[in-house]
């Protein structure tokens, strides 16, 4: 697959990263193989060994590579070693992954929330209700709704004593906001979500975790139908963070 121009290098380090990542993605450096020696690779790319070494370390932290002292740098299978932080890079490399990524982000956010939000309502109903204090002042824009939604779902994780879920949300925060803005660009979707917030707030006030569960399930079903339609018209600019 030809990907020239998808990743736009702006510096020697960015040039080196672009070259290595695209080479891995296009199987020029296949998973399980060793990268060329630093001197050879630096000369091939046209950067200093110091710059290359910094890039290799960064790509290793992201899961693209494994570096062991005294041994060649090994190319990883990113699907086994990388985290959500490389999602935007994958989309830039291959737009065919766009609909899959969006579907996965929506599903992950929703399914996780169905597990921890009712638990938060059960454990801390008063504190859960306070999370909606700014709801009446929520600006009726896609950006405002996306930010409110992210903060709301993240704060619920702590009330449910599920801080690891907060870390998961942190890991794809930018992607979360982009996906949410697509959904909230439609006024009807903002109204649908506002009604969801109010119903969930009522469950918090009533200290009724079962009502919260029913509310979450109903919203998943209604928003899921909308997402099926939206997924066919995702803008090409999506993922350009």
TrEMBL record:
Gene Ontology terms, MF aspect: DNA binding; DNA-binding transcription factor activity; fatty-acyl-CoA binding
Return the GO cellular component terms, semicolon-separated.
cytoplasm
Q: Does the keyword Metal-binding apply?
A: no
Q: Which residues form the HTH gntR-type domain?
A: 10-78
Query: What does the record give as the function of this protein?
Result: Multifunctional regulator of fatty acid metabolism.
Return the HAMAP family for the record: HTH_FadR
Its recorded name reads: Fatty acid metabolism regulator protein
Which species does the entry assign this protein to? Answer: Mannheimia varigena USDA-ARS-USMARC-1296
């Amino acid at each position: 697959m030809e990907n020239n121009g998808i990743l736009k290098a702006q510096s020697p380090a960015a040039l080196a990263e672009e070259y290595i990542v695209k080479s891995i993605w296009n199987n020029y450096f296949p998973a399980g193989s060793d990268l060329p020696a630093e001197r050879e690779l630096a000369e091939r790319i046209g950067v200093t060994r110091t710059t290359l070494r910094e890039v290799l370390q960064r790509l290793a932290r992201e899961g693209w590579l494994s570096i062991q002292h005294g041994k060649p740098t090994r190319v990883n299978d990113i699907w086994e070693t990388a985290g959500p932080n490389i999602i935007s890079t994958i989309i830039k490399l291959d737009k065919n992954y766009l609909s899959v990524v969006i579907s996965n982000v929506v599903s992950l956010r929703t399914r996780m929330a169905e597990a921890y939000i009712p638990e938060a309502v059960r454990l801390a109903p008063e504190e859960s209700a306070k999370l909606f204090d700014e709801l009446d002042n929520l600006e009726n824009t896609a950006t405002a709704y996306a930010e409110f939604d992210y903060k709301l779902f993240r704060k619920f994780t702590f009330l449910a004593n599920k801080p690891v879920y907060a870390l998961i949300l942190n890991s794809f925060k930018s992607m979360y906001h982009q996906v949410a803005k697509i959904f909230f660009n439609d006024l009807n979707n903002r109204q649908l979500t506002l009604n969801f917030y109010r119903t969930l707030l009522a469950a918090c006030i009533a200290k009724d975790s079962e009502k919260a569960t029913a509310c979450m399930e109903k919203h998943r079903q209604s928003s899921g139908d909308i997402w099926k339609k939206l997924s066919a018209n995702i803008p090409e600019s999506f993922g350009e963070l």
